[in-house]
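Journal club side-thread
Mid-discussion, someone asked how the predicted structure for our own chain would compare to the paper's figures. Pasting it here so we can look after the session.
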Amino acid sequence: MARRVGLVGWWGMFFAAAAILGFGGLTLAQENQLSDASCQPTQNRSFLQCGRIPDISGNYTGSLTDADSGRGTITLTIEQKGTHITGLWGTSYPNGEGNSGALTGTVSKKAVHAKLTTRIAHCFYTVLVSIGPDSFQGTFADSRRCPVEDSGTFTIPRSQ
């Protein structure tokens, strides 16, 4: 019996955008840190309106929907230096399944592209996330080298 790993424990989490990019080490062209040097975030104007790269460092918990395992919970711990992120991810499901690993990626003004590794060699997930004012919403898909094909969506509140 093949061991089930899919996002069956994953980070059905991070942020949604329209398409998932296949990659084996994704890098993005860096965007300008500030589109308008005079723009300063205020109570009425967010970092997104100023064109700044958002700081997404922190600990997060959100919901995910996995094609194989259904609804579950995703947790993330993210550290950020400039446009680069690293950290840890984990997923859990009511049936006791779960997965975890390391994450790496890049942040732009409105999106995150990340790679989530697993304990299985060559099995990883690509994640595309859109950064909204109140949440991260995203899609994920496996590398097609995992024991079970997997994909899904997630939503994580930003106010944590």
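Post-session note: The mean pLDDT is 75.
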